[in-house]
Amino acid sequence: MTTLGTGFARTHRWLCGHPLAFDAGLALAVLVCMVCASLADPNHGADGPSFGTRTPEPLSVVLMVLCAAVLVLRRRRPMGVLAATGALSAAEFVVTDPPAPVVMSAVIALYTVASHTDRPTTWRVGLLTMTVLTAAAMFFGSAPWYSQENLGVFAWTGMAGAAGDAVRSRRAFVDAIRERAERAERTREEEARRRVAEERLRIARDLHDVVAHHIALVNVQAGVAAHVMDKRPDQAKEALAHVRDASRSALNELRATVGLLRQSGDPEAPTEPAPGLAVLGELVRTFRNAGLPVDVACTDPGDPLPAAVDLAAYRVIQEALTNVRKHAGAGAKAEVSVVRVGATVEITVLDNGGGRSEEGPAARSGDGDGGGHGLIGMRERVTAFGGTLTAGPRYGGGFRVHAILPVMTRAGERATSVTAGGTGGQA
């Protein structure tokens, strides 16, 4: 059974790859059927139609051979083949009585046209073929117009058109399903690539925020320790303690961020929640320990912020204060405000630019040679939630960062998260 199935599949593949050979075989089979049917006498006797008592006329044999030969080209010229076989079949009805079954070739040709053209064309061509062949059989034959041979011409041509249209519809349906599946596969791959790119960008922003903030604090405290090491060792020890705390915090946050890249079965997966406005006080304390005075004002938080928005707000404040510490110079002060306005939360970070740094304003805007990706990362982070961020110098000196984040996530859901309630008032 397996060998038979394999042989059939191999033959089917070969015939699909050689359509002309298949059509030649079909034409030969149709010719054999027409010749065999022409030997039957349609006149009914006591025992029904008789076989072998009738010999087809030479003209009928010529017409049958011509129609069979024309069928070889049925795929290349379906309309021409239908016209030729239809004309030869009508001629057979006119010149011979009783006619040979040349109309078989017209039935095959009509099926081919219906299976390779659209439905309106099938209707027009099918009705015309049925009308011409049925009328020729009824008007030029000696049998009554209602004889079963004449009605058979009408039925077989109609069924040929319907069968061809059904095959064409099924083929179009299968092609549409295949195309939809391929398009869905391409869309799935593009969506996967887009999500990978977004996740890579998000992790890059988080790593930048963590490293830039803590390394800046470590740099400042290390400089203080080196400056007062000989004259004020107690203050140097305090600065080194801040360095140790900042480095430990940096390692913890880096471990939590990189831990997101672990597989589900890997050990040491992060269990602590992502930072948010609830720990804004601790963030501000690290900057104050580094010598940057920071004032914080937060309004009543109301409903909890979504976790992703809470993290974005925290990162914006962290990066803005890091830029103040790096670029505003000595003697600078910073002000942070977090205000809920309707369905948005507004974050503002101001500084007075009390001193002048070596990088200058261009570095803070990310335009100079020493400018990094801080403002670019903040803007991308805020834009990802449908918010806006503006940053630029203030009139009279200093710098201003203003971000507006929607409280609702893109999916329209609220997430339970801690808010700025622990940092209200003057932190």
From TrEMBL:
<feature type="transmembrane region" description="Helical">
    <location>
        <begin position="20"/>
        <end position="40"/>
    </location>
</feature>
<keyword id="KW-0472">Membrane</keyword>
<protein>
    <recommendedName>
        <fullName>histidine kinase</fullName>
        <ecNumber>2.7.13.3</ecNumber>
    </recommendedName>
</protein>
<feature type="coiled-coil region">
    <location>
        <begin position="174"/>
        <end position="201"/>
    </location>
</feature>
<keyword id="KW-0597">Phosphoprotein</keyword>
<dbReference type="InterPro" id="IPR003594">
    <property type="entry name" value="HATPase_dom"/>
</dbReference>
<keyword id="KW-1133">Transmembrane helix</keyword>
<keyword id="KW-0418">Kinase</keyword>
<dbReference type="GO" id="GO:0000155">
    <property type="term" value="F:phosphorelay sensor kinase activity"/>
</dbReference>
<keyword id="KW-0547">Nucleotide-binding</keyword>
<feature type="domain" description="Histidine kinase/HSP90-like ATPase">
    <location>
        <begin position="308"/>
        <end position="409"/>
    </location>
</feature>
<keyword id="KW-0812">Transmembrane</keyword>
<dbReference type="GO" id="GO:0046983">
    <property type="term" value="F:protein dimerization activity"/>
</dbReference>
<feature type="region of interest" description="Disordered">
    <location>
        <begin position="352"/>
        <end position="375"/>
    </location>
</feature>
<dbReference type="InterPro" id="IPR050482">
    <property type="entry name" value="Sensor_HK_TwoCompSys"/>
</dbReference>
<dbReference type="Pfam" id="PF02518">
    <property type="entry name" value="HATPase_c"/>
</dbReference>
<dbReference type="GO" id="GO:0005524">
    <property type="term" value="F:ATP binding"/>
</dbReference>
<feature type="transmembrane region" description="Helical">
    <location>
        <begin position="55"/>
        <end position="73"/>
    </location>
</feature>
<dbReference type="InterPro" id="IPR011712">
    <property type="entry name" value="Sig_transdc_His_kin_sub3_dim/P"/>
</dbReference>
<dbReference type="Pfam" id="PF07730">
    <property type="entry name" value="HisKA_3"/>
</dbReference>
<keyword id="KW-0902">Two-component regulatory system</keyword>
<keyword id="KW-0175">Coiled coil</keyword>
<dbReference type="InterPro" id="IPR036890">
    <property type="entry name" value="HATPase_C_sf"/>
</dbReference>
<dbReference type="Pfam" id="PF23539">
    <property type="entry name" value="DUF7134"/>
</dbReference>
<keyword id="KW-0808">Transferase</keyword>
<feature type="transmembrane region" description="Helical">
    <location>
        <begin position="125"/>
        <end position="146"/>
    </location>
</feature>
<dbReference type="InterPro" id="IPR055558">
    <property type="entry name" value="DUF7134"/>
</dbReference>
<keyword id="KW-0067">ATP-binding</keyword>
<dbReference type="GO" id="GO:0016020">
    <property type="term" value="C:membrane"/>
</dbReference>
